[in-house]
Amino acid sequence: MHRYGVSTSNPEADMLARQSWLWLTTFFLISSTLSACGTDAPPTPPLESTLESSEAPLLGTVTCLLGTTTISFSPPLTNTPQDTTVSGVGSLTNCISLLTSPVTSGTTNFPAALRPGLACDDLLGIRGGTVNIVWNTGETSQLSLTQVVISGGSSVKETAQIGTVVSGKYAGATAVRTLTFVTADLENACASPEGLPQYTALQTLALTLIP
User: Fold this and answer.
1) Integer Cα distance of 194 and 82 in angstroms
2) Which of 192, 70, 187 is nearest to 120 (CA)?
3) Quick one: which of 11, 40, 99, 125 has the fewest CB in 10 Å?
């Protein structure tokens, strides 16, 4: 007999030889399998992280298209400079958020502040101020703004106030707030003996968040 590479004339010896050959073959098979299982393949980079690293950061925006604000003067403002306390309250609606946490509306205000030597002509001048916003989410933002642009004709004028969100929600965002009012309402009231106690203007707000 020549199977398994051995051959004797003794059946018992043949059986022992076959068993030895099977054990040896099994040992080599198991050793080869364990060696293959123990080999670590190089890790494959996660697809998600690869995609994230290739994406450029995007700008986030918040635009509130409709709103009004009422600015009050005490004592009423006139064409003659005088110390006047100024305050204001308003609202923002139809807010649209893109690539940032959403809001839909808000209320605006700035606390009463004494303005020395203020006259009606100063309403169209360059000046700074702080505006606070309470969003419909309950979160707040504080804006520091400077009025830098004046446009419009004899009947309607628009001022643009440019600055940043200095604290709260959207902190660090650039801000542009516009106020549009009827010129005659201001001029007629300022020229009257009673003066201008308050005026109401349309307002919009645009925020841009740079990542």
Assistant:
1) 14
2) 187
3) 40
Of 185, 175, 170, 179, the C-alpha closest to 207 is 175
CB-based contacts of 166-172 (< 8 A; 24+ apart in sequence): 166/142, 167/141, 167/142, 168/133, 168/139, 168/140, 168/141, 168/142, 169/101, 169/103, 169/135, 169/137, 169/139, 169/140, 169/141, 170/62, 170/100, 170/141, 170/207, 170/209, 171/141, 172/209, 172/210
Residue 88 in tokens: 């204001």
Q: What is the pLDDT of residue 43?
A: 52
The pLDDT of residue 68 is 98
